[in-house]
Amino acid sequence: MLPTLFLSHGSPMMALEPSPARDFLSQLGEALGRPDAILVASAHWETARPELNAVAVNKTIHDFYGFPPALHATRYPAPGAPELAGRVATLLNEAGLAAELDRDRGLDHGAWVPLTLMYPAHDVPVLQLSLQSRLGPAHHHKLGQAISRLRAEDVLVIGSGSFTHNLSRLRRGAPDTSPPADVAAFSNWMHDALVQHRTDELLAYRRRAPYAALQHPTEEHLLPLFVAFGAGGENAAATRLHASTTYSALRMDAYAFG
After folding, report:
1. In terms of residue numbers, what domain contains 98?
2. Minimal CA–CA distance to 38: which of 185, 164, 153, 170?
3. In this structure, is residue 123 part of a structural domain?
4. CA distances from residue 99 to 127, 133, 151, 233 in whole angstroms, order as listed
């Protein structure tokens, strides 16, 4: 049975620039094997209610600006999974999470950047699940729980965000080996809470974790973690697969659940 994953996707430039996180993701797909399909809950798709993209072939969304032409030229035309999207919508509706289908949207960089490294052949069907950031961690944990049975059906569920994400504190060229103490304190608290399965504390991380609002002025980049955590299943073991820092304060940690 596949685990579920939380991946920190970092800057879109991870698709082109060397980094420890890029090296990790480049090996992860081979280590996991090829799933039948991939569902990504990305920080870069927010809607009023849960939505799933149901398309035949995914467009590549370049939802950024100010990056080099080579990045804007990158394409990841993975097939879609419209039938699976319909089934996932049914699972969410049965859980009281009214879901809709979007028959046009492609993949944002929270999905295609890590997938270009994990499965560069873009031959695995991919669909995305949107976030509702105003509803917080408990809602996204419930989203994950509603789709947890996909693990047994060879569907790889990925939450794609960032373990810390305060863009005002990023420093290109700064040493990545000595992140600020508050970044380490928050990351260590989150790690301990995940591996000890302190679910109630995690859902209240905004109040319980040190420096939480400093690391995440807005929540959308951490909420995919709660989707992956919920989808891992009841009392699923949490394993840290990778930990590194880029641009001084951007933690790139990755976890597997189950």
Report:
1. 4-179+217-257
2. 153
3. yes
4. 14, 15, 20, 21
Q: How many domains does the chain have?
A: 1
Q: Which residues pair with 58 in a beta bridge?
A: none
Residue 79 burial class via C-beta count within 10 angstroms: exposed 0-12, middle 13-18, buried 19 and up: middle
User: Please, are residues 230 and 164 in contact by the beta-carbon 8 Å criterion?
Assistant: no
Phi/psi for 207 (5° steps) reads -95, -30
* Token pair of 112 as six digits: 């295609």
Asked if residue 145 is part of any domain, the answer here is yes
The per-residue DSSP string of 193-225 comes to: HHHTT-HHHHHTHHHHSTTHHHH-SSSTTTHHH
Long-range contacts, 205-209 (Cβ 8 Å, 24+): 205/137, 206/136, 206/137
Confirm whether 199 is domain-assigned.
Answer: no
**Residue of 28, 26, 40 whose CA lies nearest to 241:** 28
Q: Find the farthest-apart pair of alpha carbons in the chain and give their distance in angstroms, rounded.
A: 48
CA distance 146 to 150: 9
Rounded Cα distance between 140 and 201, Å, is: 15
Written as one letter, the residue type at 79 is P
Q: From the first residue on, what is the mean pLDDT of each consecutive set of 10 residues in the chain (258 residues)?
A: 96 94 98 98 98 98 94 97 98 98 98 98 98 98 98 97 93 69 97 97 98 98 98 93 94 97
CATH number at 40 reads 3.40.830.10
Residue 190: inside a domain: no
